[in-house]
Amino acid sequence: MSKITKDTIKNLPEDEKEIILHLTEIFEGEEETINEYVKNQLIDR
């Protein structure tokens, strides 16, 4: 997983972090897409 994703999720609740980390494993190579989703849907809520 990229450092960008780790930095993005560091302030999220633990259960959300686990889900995102699992998704980055499943969708390897799509880290930027996941990172953008997290920023737009979870952090900016």
Explain briefly what this protein structure is.
The protein has 45 residues and is mostly helical. The chain has helices spanning 3-9, 14-26, 31-43.
Detailed description of the structure:
The protein has one domain (3-43). Helices cover 73% and strands 0% of the residues. It is built from 3 helices and no strands. The mean pLDDT is 83.
Low-pLDDT stretches: none
Radius of gyration: 9 Å
The secondary-structure element order is HHH
Task: Note the beta-strand portion.
Answer: under 5%
Q: What structural class do helix, strand and pairing data support?
A: mainly alpha
Question: Count of DSSP E strands?
Answer: 0
Q: Give the total of domains.
A: 1
Biggest β-sheet strands, sense, barrel = none
Number of helices: 3
What is the mean pLDDT?
83
General shape: globular
- How far apart, in Å, are the first and last alpha carbons? 24 Å
Estimate the helix proportion, in percent.
over 70%
Key structural traits:
single chain, about 45 residues, mainly alpha
Write the layout of secondary structure elements.
Blueprint: H1 3-9, H2 14-26, H3 31-43
Helix pairs in contact: 1-3
